[in-house]
Structure formats: structure tokens, C-alpha cells
Design a protein that fits this description.
532 residues, 3-stranded antiparallel sheet
Amino acid sequence: MGGVTSEEQKKPENRPRPTTDEFRAFVASGWAPRHSEVPARADVAEYAAQRRAAVGARFPGERLVIPAGGLKVRSNDCDYVFRPHSAFAHLTGLGSDREPDAVLVLEPRAQSEGGGHEAVLYFRPLAGRDTEEFFGDARYGEFWVGARPTIEDIEAELGITARHIDELRDALAKDAGVTRLRVVRDADPQVAGLVDAVREESGTSAVEGDRSDSAADATATSETGAAAVAQEEQRSPDDELSAFLSSLRMVKDAWEVEQMRSAIEGTKRGFEAVIADLAEAVRRGRGERWVEGVFGLHARHHGNGVGYDSICASGDHANTLHWIKNTGEVKEGDLLLLDAGVEVDSLYTADVTRTLPVSGTFTDAQREIYEAVFAAQEAGIAAARPGNKFSDIHGAAIRVIAEHLYKWGLLPEGVDVEGTLDTEHGQYHRRWMVHGTSHHLGIDVHDCALATREEYMDAELKPGMILTVEPGLYFKADDELAPERFRGNGVRIEDDILITEDGNENLSASMPRTADEVEAWIAGVQSQRQSG
């Protein structure tokens, strides 16, 4: 599953392979014995088991299929670095580049066996040295890409049953006529196709009985009531599974919070490396690429890499919200908006933005914009507390933005703060602050994206949630409605906030935020660089 496609099989064979029995025997011989020790149980195993139990309780008696996904071609016979599907990583604890083509199946147990589900991981285990794969398979062979774990390794590390991927089809087909199948379709099209084939052969349908009785009961008694029922009824059974796995990640467990702390720690190191090298970014030209490279170096060293394409936007590029081309100059006098995050090996990522004066100090106009954004962020962070709604964060921050725009005379004549905040007839402030203020954060930079509006925007904030607070103001160089002193400057400040029992914790608070602190931060880091 998830392996070489029929199209790839048609390609000419341009690599030498063992062609004679004598050569095969020679390749297979003369190797030292493999180590016999199995890995220790991973710290995440206990937490992953609890997550799987929550999934099983939501879909009792059903066979649930969560693929890792397969390798994806970058060019010709070169693959992208593999990253498993987020739902797979969350439910297994496998991160980094593990394990391409693997499939987690939550197999329902009979009531006589205690009910619940058994977790079974189907994957491609280490092949013997006497196999063609060992020496001749450039995509999977140990000679080419290194050794994979054995079945015993996976079982010891994760505390779940492991089997060869070749057994997957028979496992899915077992009692398929009476055991409902659901699959995370977008994770691996080949596995989704296999599930569809099993359904067709067993005479079942992907849309039969759109919702189980237990799901209907649970939804109908929820706070969102009829609206959530209507939302779920529009989803296929497979989509219901994917949506539940997405919303399951909203409240982080203790292990996840520690992963986020590590990601943020690495992110701070990356930002300070950029600050230390700002003069070099200016000197070399094409400085945005230099900034991107410096941060990426530290991200790759600390963890798995960057959690998303870094935005390294200098000058007017900061006013393009998703500026990831990073082809521009970094110039003295400019602001550098750096939006970047380290993804650790478990795939949890930070997401932090700081707007840095390249020369070390803000101009008066730059400081004026910066302090307005900072005030908005402070209001948003204060609203990030249990009992408030997720949308209250944006409401608090955007009110401060609107107040500043009104004070500066930028709203249309006759429109005051309340007028622009009127969602039916206003929203003029969005010319300079178009995006939302927050999103959930975790194993995806925009985590829990399949949750309904009732589960996301309108939901009550709960301890364990981690989200961003990131207002901004953006004055494009050609914006004739903006004051001339503001044009060409964009400012965003973003921090990662953990909701606690009595308020919140700013996980990225060690990275300075006020204008004065940022200037002192730059001076201190660069002074240390010069003296070190």
C-alpha cells in the first residue's frame, strides 16, 4: 500500500540490480549479526493509547483506518522528505519521517472480550539481507535509505500490535459485511481505494447509515444541539472520522504541552541566530533568503525542521500576509517581519512572529504602528481565558485596532469604532488588518481545521488548549489612504498561548515583545555575537 504506482512501474530500469544467484548470495553474505535489543517504550505511548481510547469510544464496534500516507515524488525518482499524516502521528506517537505506507487500524473487540478496540499497526518492517529489497530497491531498501524497525521493535516502542503491511487487505475484509469501515481518506488515496474495494465486495456502502445511534445521541445532547447535528448529517462517515480526529487535538495532554515548550525553545534560538546575523543579511543581498536559511539551519538542528514555510518579509513585503518567496533585500531602516516556527521530531510546531527593526531601533512611525499592534495583542491575550469563547480573542484585539485607526483618521467619514466593528455594514478596518487574530496550534500549525464553527469559533476556551494571538497592521507602500509616514511598514506580533485553569500562560514570553524590549534584545544578541 502507498508504494510504487503502475505508472512508476512502467519507467525504464536504469539501476543495476543483482542479476545472478551467485551475486545475490554474495550481497547477502558477510554481514555482522543485527542487534537484538528492542527499543524502550516511548514516553508518548501511554498518551497515544488514551487518545485512541477516546476515538474508539466515539465509534464503538467500527473498524477505523488511519493511514500514515505514502512517499511523494519531488522529481523523477527523488521523493520529498516523508511526514506522516497528522491524525496518524497523533494516535501512534510516530513523528519525524516515520513510517511511510503504514496504516493504523483500530479493530473492534467483541463484547465478550471486553469491547473497545485493539490498535494494530500495519507497516513495512525491516527486510532480510537475502531479499531483493535489501540491495536493489532504491526507495525502500536498507542499502539505500537505511534500516527500518522490525515488528518486534514497533511493538516494544509503541505498546501496540504490529503486522506486515501485506496483511492489511485481509484484515480490512474480515467480516466487512457486518463491521462498519471508516477511513481517513485524504491520508492515502491508495488505502482509501482499498477500503472502497472492500466495501464494494462486501455489498456495503460508504454512505450507508450516515451516523451511528450513539453518535446521534451524543451530538443531540451536546451544547451545540441541532446545529451540530445538521453539520454532521452533511458529512460522510469517513468525513465524520476525520473531523473527530481533528477536533480531538483541541485540548492538549501534558506530553503535548512539553513538546510545544521544546518547539518554542528551539524557535527562540532560531530568532536569536537571525538577529545575530542581520548585518550579514544586509551585506550579502537577497537577505530574506539568508534569514530563511539561518532560521532553517537551527530548526533542522533542534528538531524535524520548520513547521511551515517561514515568512521572512522585509520592508513592504511584510504587507503581503503569506510572503514565503523570501527573495527580497533586507535593508537598513526596514522592518523585518519574521513569522517562523520550529517543528520538533514529534511534529508539534511553534508559531511565533516578531517584527524587528533591521537597524536596531524603530523610527517614530514604525514605533507608533508597533505599539498599536502590541496594545491589540495585550487585549487579545487578556481575553484568552477559560469561559470566554475563542472568538472573544479576536473581538478584543480588533477593537483596539479599530480604535487606533479611528484615532488616526483612517476610517471613512462618519464611521466610528462601533460602526466599523458592525459585521453587517462595517469592517472598514479590515483594509489594514484582514486576517483573524487566533488559531489552534499543535501538530499542525493551523490545528483542528476540520472542526465545525460551533466546535471552533463559537466554542468555550478550556484548559489545555494552545492557540496563537497575532494581530497586525499592514500599510502597503502604494496605499494612498494610509498616512505617508506609515506606508511600506507592516507589523505583526504573535505568541503561543496555553489556556490554564485560571487564565493563560504565554509559552513564548521569553521572546521580548514591547518595542523597548525588542530594541534591547537586538542590541544584546548582537553585542554577544561581537564579543563571542
